[in-house]
């Protein structure tokens, strides 16, 4: 029987681990964006992606389920923003279809994990 590791820090959360992985993917791919996008799309998508894991981390440290829910919801909003910017990046040919699919698939993983955190916090709010 597999032993479940106790979650002691934000970086133990799968949602944080996968969002961190997404941020690394975004940083790597945006290095190849045109130089004139450094203050445009490159900066926007990097900030949105970093915001996902940052809000998961901040939410983890909050004491109330309501506060946690708020930060996890903000993380999900930043993820949606990232997805929008990925679509733009693909549509202006900054990202090829294979790389886009890999990153998009990672956003789906993060979305499911964030929604799981949100659902869990909502269940605590309804039970109190």
From TrEMBL:
Any Pfam family the entry gives: 23S_rRNA_IVP
Name by which UniProt lists this protein: Four helix bundle protein
């Amino acid at each position: 029987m597999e032993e479940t590791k106790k979650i002691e820090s934000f970086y133990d959360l799968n949602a944080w681990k996968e969002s961190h992985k997404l941020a690394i993917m975004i940083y790597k791919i945006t290095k190849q964006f045109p130089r004139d996008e450094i203050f445009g799309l490159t900066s926007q998508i990097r900030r949105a992606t970093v915001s996902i894991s940052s809000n998961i981390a901040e939410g983890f440290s909050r004491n109330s389920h309501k506060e946690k829910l708020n930060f996890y919801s903000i993380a999900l909003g930043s993820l949606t923003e990232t997805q929008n910017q990925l679509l733009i990046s693909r549509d202006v040919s900054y990202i090829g279809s294979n790389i886009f699919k890999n990153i998009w698939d990672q956003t789906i993983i993060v979305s499911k994990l964030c929604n799981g955190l949100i659902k869990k916090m909502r269940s605590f709010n309804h039970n109190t």
